[in-house]
Specification:
The complex is a heterodimer of chains A (about 140) and B (about 500). Chain A has about 140 residues and is α+β, with helices and mostly antiparallel strands. Chain A has 1 helix and 10 strands. The chains are: A alpha+beta (about 140), B mainly alpha (about 500). The interface between A and B is large, with 52 and 60 residues.
Amino acid sequence: MGEHSNWPEWVYIGVVVALLCWVGAEAWNVERLVEHIPEDAKTIKVVGQQWFWTFEHEDGTKEIGELHLETGKAYRFEITSTDVIHSFNIHDYVVLLDAVPGRVNTVWFAPTEAGVYDIQCREYCGLIHYNMRGTLYVEDPT
Amino acid sequence: MVLELHKPRPVWQIMFSTHHTDVGLLYLITSLGFLFLGGALALAIRAELFFPGSQIIADSMTFNRMFTVHGTTLIFLFILPSASAVGNYFVPIMVRYKDMAYPKLNAIAFWMIPPGGALIWLGFADFTWYATPPYSVISAPGPAADMWIFGLKILGVSSILGAINFVVTILKCKHPDMSIGQVPLLAWSFLSSSLIILVALPTFAAALLMLLTDRMGVSGFFNPVMGGDPIAYAHLFWFTFHPEVYVLVIPAIGMMYEIIPRFSRRPIFSHSSGVAAFVILAIVGFSSWAHHMYATGMSFTEKTVFMVGTLAAVPASAMHVFNFLATMWGGRIRFSTPMMWAVGGIALFFSAGAGGVVNSAMPLDFVTHDSYWVVGHFHLFVMGTIAFGTIGYVYYMFPYVTGRMYHEALGKVHFVLAMVGTVMVFFTQHVLGLFGMPRRIYDYPPIPEWVAMNQIATIGAMLIGISMAIWLGNMIYSSGRGREANMEDPFGLGGKYYYPHQQKNPVH
């Protein structure tokens, strides 16, 4: 072509690239902070299987389909699966990680408000995937 | 075929022909047939989700099979063949060659599609278009799953044969007076998407075979019980199918490059920037596959690498948008039906791209991943961008294929209903995802926000359904009874703006 100047396109691409750099840098920084697991976090073992969740606390107590936690404490979920891939999700606290058979994935969170929250499976796992749900009860420490 | 209905031929003459326009016609009719079949499944899925609880679909397995076949059909049996239809009609003309480079190979590539499609529809598998192991290995019922695997295998070979044909036609058969830089952007889009297919597809072909032997129990590549790793499948799958996203979208962008300048009655703002953006997309498309896998437990470093790789694809897409807007700027635009679809497609392409930046940012991906946000996001590409570009182009080539004009007012009604419907379905689904609704679920708890947004989405889907019925009626009626098109200038743009009128290819 060459009959007209292309400088508006270069300015535009510059703006786009600058925005993307900002998004990338910010995402990198936030993710770095979010992934830092506090050292006093209590471990909860989470097992997904078709089509329910099992939880095991540090003291060995087990819960099925329900999980009782306390506000003000950090929890570290060690997530795995016994059959197919599931995805452990507490949407209200942006907890999301796949339960993959043969590996243990780790994610943490610290509930801040007492209440009842939904636990669900977010990776397709078959017949009852739509109802592979659980309930998180967050209570104030007594 | 030009003026098909003026000189009717027995249907087997078209079916057994190897002429590029005949094969193009077969591709076109097949792909539109599958568009309506896959769309009907979408309407059933949306109707089921209108209320919580069971509505019209008896059980979750049927529902799971329906969304699996919906996705597989529209990607492999509508989008890819419809692009091949346009490529068959136009690429040889644009590079000034008498036909595709290998006409028989071209016909073979087409004729692999019906058996592939039949296997997918007769099997009706349930493991999503992603066929994720170990579910697909240990849990998915056969023979549906095996039929799906064979169907995809056949369609993959068809894609590779088609891609070889396009690459050779463009690089080796273009007119000697024409430099590669002068090749029109639509043909460039087929060159870049075909090259992506040739590099990306073999990986998935291998993964499919591994999946099949895993299902037969003779290997354990993806089965942890036998020492395999399901995440390896995810890598193999997405190494093919993230670039494949560009395979799907690039021809649609190419079609917009044909429509926008003609209906703006201005040359394209920058031909070289369009070429550069295609080439950049074809290369950086390979650097982002694992952004689909943040939640599988990837390390921080891996996630960072694939986030950067994903963001790198954005400037090239943005160059296309700029090129379109700069072409329209100051042009004498005529908003005929094809132009409306192309402009609507650009707007939705921009929205889809903006959503994609959100997904690629690591912390935000854990909000959106596997939720309805993702469903809304990629449908803005496959429906909002690719189907819009393709439908606009089908209107644009309608006079060339049939020698007649479609009904212009009905075409505009089709666009308006589909545009409103698309915004209602897929923008709402983004928000629904932010409220936490997972994708691929047959039933959902009666959370008021979820119910309200599902109902908005279902109404939008029904609008799209109505608009597509209008389109089907318009096409069938107009191809037989429509007014005869002025083949020099069917859209009344003033001047010989219509590309195909230059076609000199003899029928053989």
